[in-house]
Design goal:
single chain, 240 residues, mainly alpha, 8 helices, 70% helix
Length: 240
């Protein structure tokens, strides 16, 4: 019997349609998803019943109601790589020169844009190698683990000992990215635009907010769904 979710992460997994509402309210369901629903609601000035009412009333964006716990881990991985990793690489390629351009034009009157530029480059430097490590090390192991289970074979023995080791590192790197996204939101006053903002300025802030939301969903899929399932599968295959 499935128990009712008690943490924000469990809520996001059990009710994928809640993600758009949590995003709008600014409730962290990925890096800090282990906070209780009650505590998160209290911090945002609403009751759990009010939150559930908002979730039930909100239409789910296309594709957001997909229940990934019912899909093979290989399908989750393919979605992460083909959707989130591809989007992230494309986004940072656009954001780096755009942040430099906007800081060069408007930085004299808006000093925070220099910080935005620095953070954009730091995010790119964090995200690109992070995704490569997932694609080249962790994800292939998880897929091989799942395939061995399906075929009834012995699970592979990874050079890193156990999935818990790279998972721990990936989650720490997720926290670092999450902190930088929060810093971007803070120094821009929630991506508020000045009246004199040019088109490039507006595009920069729009794309930063879009990247933030995509990374939140990306981290949620890994932290709350894929990684726990990978660890459970490994421990079931090697109970000793």
């Amino acid at each position: 019997m499935q128990t009712a979710p008690t943490t924000v992460a469990e809520l996001a997994v059990a009710m994928p349609q809640s993600i758009s509402v949590l995003e709008k309210l600014g409730i962290d369901y990925c890096c800090n998803g282990q906070q209780s629903i009650e505590k998160a609601c209290r911090a945002h000035g609403l009751s759990t019943d009010e939150l559930l009412g908002l979730i039930n009333a909100a239409p789910a964006p296309a594709g957001e109601s997909r229940s990934w716990n019912d899909e093979p881990m290989s399908a989750v991985i393919r979605f992460i790589v083909d959707t989130h990793h591809r989007y992230t690489r494309d986004a940072v390629d656009v954001l780096r020169p755009l942040a430099t351009k906007v800081a060069g034009v408007h930085g004299a009157n808006h000093a925070e844009l220099r910080q935005v530029e620095t953070l954009v480059y730091e995010l790119a430097d964090d995200l690109i190698p992070h995704m490569l490590k997932e694609e080249q090390v962790l994800f292939p192991y998880v897929e091989a683990l799942e395939e061995a289970s399906f075929l009834g074979d012995q699970p592979p023995v990874p050079f890193f000992g156990t999935a818990r080791n790279p998972v721990r590192m990936m989650m720490l790197e997720h926290e670092t990215v999450g902190e930088k996204l929060l810093e971007l939101r803070t120094i821009t006053a929630n991506f508020e635009l000045p009246v004199e903002a040019c088109t490039s300025y507006r595009v920069l802030f729009a794309k930063l907010e879009e990247l933030e939301q995509d990374i939140h969903r990306h981290i949620h899929l890994e932290n709350n769904i894929l990684f726990p399932r990978a660890i459970e599968a490994e421990e079931s295959a090697r109970p000793e």
